[in-house]
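Hi C.,

You asked whether I'd gotten around to modeling the 193-residue construct. I have! Everything is below, sequence then structure, no commentary in between.
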Amino acid sequence: MGLYDRFELLEMRHNDGVQTYHAREIATARPVQVHFLSNPVENSALLASVDRLPESERRRVLDQGEIQGIPYVVTDRLSGYATFREWLAAQAPTSAKAEVDTQFWTLFDAGQASAGHVSAAPVFEKPAEAPAQGAVYLEKEAEPWESPSNPTLRTNIHVVPSAAKLTLGLVFGIVAAVLFLVLALAIFAFRSH
């Protein structure tokens, strides 16, 4: 049984990359909402958010699928929420930053999967030109990302001190050299008398 066999679309309520329709379940006349995920860049992240819903909210998802290549989610009427995204964001157990990170890695993993490989190459590469005086390059293995598709994520961290730090280091070096010279001259003068 297809989407249109089970649900009758009544009117579009929102279109912000997710087209939300007020609808009715044909068999029971139950009011529902049908959300078409029409932004391919965000679809994976939104569907992942649906999968991570707490059980109490997951029960509000009545149907989920794809029609003509466009994913859709059917829910109860989401009263109290202006949009499908707002409802998902309110249910997210993580902070907004973690949600952005999740969306990034979802998109990153999808891009890597579509390319047919997962690269273990460094995320940052050492500059080809000679490093500035006092530059420090640290290489460290990152903690493996929790994604099974990228267990060998590797990063190179490059720390190049600012000009103020270099100047401060130079000044301290000169002061230390002058103090050492004064001490050496004082010892030499004391021994000659």
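If it helps when you're writing up: Confidence is low (pLDDT under 50) at residues 116-127, 137-160.

Thanks,
B.
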